[in-house]
Amino acid sequence: MKLVDLFSGCGGLSLGFQNVGFEISAAFDNWISAVKVYRDNFNHPIYHTDLSTKEGLLFVKNLNPQIIIGGPPCQDFSSAGKRDETLGRADLTISYAKIVSACNPEWFVMENVERIIKSKILKEAIIIFRQAGYGMSYQVLDASYCGVPQARKRFFLVGHKHSSDNFLNPYFNKNQSKIPMTVFDYFGDSLGIEYYYRHPRSYRRRGIFSIHEPSPTIRGVNRPIPEGYKKHDGDPVDIRDNVRPLTTKERSMIQTFPDNFILNGAKTDLEQIIGNAVPVKLAEFVAICIKEYISDIRKDSIVTENQLSLRFDNITKTITQIVWL
Question: What's the sign of the alpha-carbon dihedral 193, 195, 200, 202?
């Protein structure tokens, strides 16, 4: 199945789908720093391209993909941003929908932040997908129930040409774990710490977390502990010598990128790239649900064909008996 990743960033979605057995034909992004990281880690091509242009659309269409995956930039919806759909980046969600509609793949997967559910842009995109003939399933997935040691909620919309709405929801539901994954569940004692600092958005929130709980959402900033930090009521311990921020590499691994994933570039860019990424194990979770659904469809087709064959055999026997009578 020929797969293309749009707005690919450093490749969290690509790597997750690739790990499950999908073949990636190409990827596209317009941020050169993310493109460079992607190129260091994948063998297939990634193109530094503006997908909001007509040329970008034609480029993707010429690849004739069977499945398109992607996460249009989400800053205009994100709680970390200004939540203003008029800033222009939200339009890339519409660009994504138009590319899918024009390319007409059998499948598409669109990922974004949870807040997109409340946006007008999503409603417009769904209309485009609906007019193109897709049945759709969507769900907000908490990554910590999908094999990721991080309480990160992400919106997934999956479309398929030959299915009714909500076709994938039973697979999303049955494949999630019963309890969230903690940092300790994933790393054990290998980080060498029990508590770590994650800079809060405001000092009304805590900044210290235990490895015996899921990590909070990995964001695009990674600041040091400020001098004179005062213990928050929610902090499990005081600031001590062995409480520190996570490193860039550790943050990428909480996003479930493998230890051998290459991260070259300016630290500020890398922190933002990691914060923007789809956790690899979350992408794997979605890819596995799709593969299970495809497998079940094929089984049902075989059963249906066998049932038809049996019915035909019975009719033939009946006709033979009538003839012999």
Answer: negative
Name the strand (E) or helix (H) holding 23.
strand 23-29
How far apart (Å, rounded) are the C-alpha atoms in residues 215 and 207?
11
Ordered per-residue pLDDT tens for the chain, 325 residues: 789 999 999 999 999 999 999 999 999 999 999 999 999 999 999 999 999 998 989 999 999 999 999 999 865 554 554 545 555 456 899 999 999 999 999 999 999 999 999 999 999 999 999 999 999 999 999 999 999 999 999 999 999 998 999 999 999 999 999 999 999 999 999 999 999 999 998 888 999 999 999 999 999 999 999 988 889 999 999 987 789 999 999 999 999 999 999 999 999 999 999 999 999 999 999 999 999 999 999 887 665 555 545 454 554 444 333 343 3
Separation between Cα atoms, residue 46 and residue 268, nearest integer Å: 22
What global pTM score does this model have?
A: 0.89
Q: Indicate the pairing of strand 195-197 with strand 208-210.
A: antiparallel
| Rounded distance between C-alpha atoms, residue 66 and residue 75, angstroms | 28
74 assigned to active site: yes
The DSSP letter of residue 215 is: B
Of 10, 74, 146, 289, the active-site residue reads 74
Distance from CA of residue 100 to its chain's centroid? 17
Question: Among candidates 119, 18, 116, which has minimal Cα distance to 71?
Answer: 116
Name residue 195's beta-bridge partners: 210
Class of the CATH domain delimited by 2-177+278-304? alpha beta
The answer to whether 37 touches 265, Cβ cutoff 8 Å, is: yes
